[in-house]
Design goal:
It is a single chain. The termini are close together. The mean pLDDT is 94. The strands form 4 sheets. Strands 3, 4, 5, 6, 7, 16 and 17 form a 7-stranded mixed sheet that branches. Strands 10-9-8-11-12-15 form a 6-stranded parallel sheet, with helices on both faces. Helix 3 packs across helix 4, helix 3 crosses helix 10 and helix 7 packs parallel to helix 8. The protein is 32% helix and 28% strand. The chain is globular and about 65 Å long. It is α/β, with parallel strands linked by helices and 339 residues long. The chain has 11 helices and 17 strands. Helix 11 links the parallel strand 16 and strand 17.
Length: 339
């Protein structure tokens, strides 16, 4: 059987994103074959293509950080999932495809009634937000937080989950996205025309917020730390400031980590979050957290913002749109029609 997939032939720009049909291997011992319905488009996919993602595989390879699909067959000694069952996974790579073979212990079942497209928009973003809030920041009802990129995929997830936790939320976003930020219960701050540090210190009477979630990185971390109360926590989780028009500024990436010891000298806590590292460290915790997100989705307590959908063969356009920051929420690729 042929597997229609996207391949990064080598490091480079959008032109290296190529659709290809390759032979699909039979699932091995402990593996199941999943027909992919949808997968998310992540900033990490762009960084991998540009050769700027730590631990990325050697070229050529198929990108794709997460997926939702249905089991179609199983290898030997597989007894957890049945053909036709809907499942999800954080793959880190390989999800830009029609099919994928995965170890059965990597998969999380979808509850009945959960829309697979909404589920695909919630895996990476909502588990990232959930773990940063609950496992790293250890937020408490009534605390205040600042979310950068509040209208993005992780940003909108943070806003929705923060509202469920009874937090007071501020979110930076362009003015055009303020209605979305407000609709999700946060106070918007225009990062183009406002100094978010001054605004935060003004509304908190000089105290600062309890936690800042910063996916921008670089020199922005220093300003984020200034918006924190003493003893507050800064959680970095991205390098958006390192990215400009499909190129990476390595100086800003280095600056992201160089800032952290200086911030701690101010009496403020700082850490860097990576969902891939968290999954490697504790797969059971990751799967429990993803199951919790799916239950919130089933109970209509969260509503993933899907900013755009593209067929698999338009992966290059999807990445171009993501890199332009012109879309709110999550971009997903629909893979099922390629079968």
């Amino acid at each position: 059987m042929k597997n229609h997939q996207i391949l990064y032939q080598h490091k480079g720009g959008l032109d290296v994103i190529q659709p290809l049909d390759l032979d699909l291997a039979e699932p091995q011992d402990g593996e199941v074959c999943v027909q992919i319905i949808a997968c998310g488009v992540a900033f990490a996919d762009i960084l991998m293509r540009l050769g700027a993602y730590p631990g990325a595989p050697a070229f050529p390879f198929t990108p794709g950080y997460d997926l939702v699909g249905r089991v179609i067959s199983s290898g030997p000694r597989c007894n957890i999932f049945k053909p036709g069952q809907f499942v999800a996974a954080l793959t880190v790579r390989g999800a830009y495809a029609a099919y994928i073979n995965l170890p059965q212990e990597e998969l999380v079942p979808l509850p009945n009634g959960v829309d697979p497209y909404e589920a695909s928009a919630s895996i990476l973003n909502y588990v990232t937000a959930w773990q940063m809030l609950q496992r790293h920041a250890l937020v408490q009802n009534g605390e205040s937080i600042l979310v950068h990129g509040a209208a993005g995929g992780v940003g909108t997830a943070l806003l929705q989950l923060a509202a469920l936790s009874g937090l007071k939320v501020f979110g930076t976003a362009s003015h055009a996205k303020h209605d979305l930020v407000s609709s999700l219960g946060a106070t918007p701050i225009d990062y183009h025309s406002e100094d978010f540090v001054s605004r935060i210190l003004q509304v908190t009477r000089g105290r600062g917020v309890d936690v800042v979630f910063d996916g921008v990185g670089g020199s922005n971390l220093w300003r984020s730390a200034r918006a924190l109360r003493r003893g507050g926590k800064l959680i970095g989780y991205g390098f958006l400031q390192s990215y400009n028009q499909d190129h990476i500024n390595n100086t800003q990436t280095i600056l992201t980590f160089g800032m952290m010891p200086l911030i701690m000298l101010q009496g403020k806590r700082v850490s860097f979050y990576s969902i891939g590292d968290e999954k490697k460290k504790d797969l059971a915790a990751f799967k429990n957290d993803l199951s919790s997100i799916f239950n919130l989705l089933k109970d209509h307590k969260i509503n993933p913002v899907i900013g755009a959908r593209f067929p698999l063969d338009q992966a290059a356009e999807a990445q171009r749109l993501l890199g332009s920051a012109a879309v709110s929420g999550k971009i997903i690729l629909t893979c099922e029609e390629t079968v």
